[in-house]
Amino acid sequence: MHYNDFDQGGGDAMPAPPASGPHRINIRPCKRGMRGQFYSVSYAGATIIPATLNPTGAACRHLASLGLNGPLEVWDGERPYPRLLIRDLVKAAAITVAEGEAHGPRFVRYREWCGISRSAA
């Protein structure tokens, strides 16, 4: 499966999950910002996330919020095979990647961001 096989238009209705096998998302670069490369995420023919720095984590959280579970394959337009395999999307939804000046990338527990900057508080 290739991300170009999917309609990239956003719709209101959530597509049905696959009848059998793992769930599949398709990621593609959409823009570059000051914080890095942003990706859009498609699932079953619909764009579910228009722009994110962490496409796999964001997709797992979105799909889990819809009540979906099980394995997940992450596809891109470059490879004829999945870029990443996730055994359990619900468990993956609970973690994210953190990186700072004191350490390189690492997995940490996901905490929802409230949207208020520290300087504004």
Overall outline:
globular
Which class best fits the helix and strand makeup?
Answer: mainly beta
The SSE string, one letter per element, is EEEHEEHEE
Rg of Cα set: 15 Å
Strand residue content: 25-35%
Helix content: 10-25%
Strand order of the largest sheet: 3-2-1-4-5
**Largest sheet entry:** 5 strands, mixed
| H/I helix tally | 2
Give the tally of β-strands.
Answer: 7
Instruction: Give the low-confidence spans.
Output: 1-12
Mean pLDDT: 83
**Ends apart, CA distance between termini:** 46 Å
* Count of all domains: 1
Describe the structure concisely for a colleague.
The chain has helices at 55-65, 89-93; strands spanning 23-33, 36-43, 46-52, 72-75, 84-86, 95-98, 106-109. The chain has 121 residues and is mainly beta. The strands form 2 sheets. Strands 3-2-1-4-5 form a 5-stranded mixed β-sheet, with helices on one face.
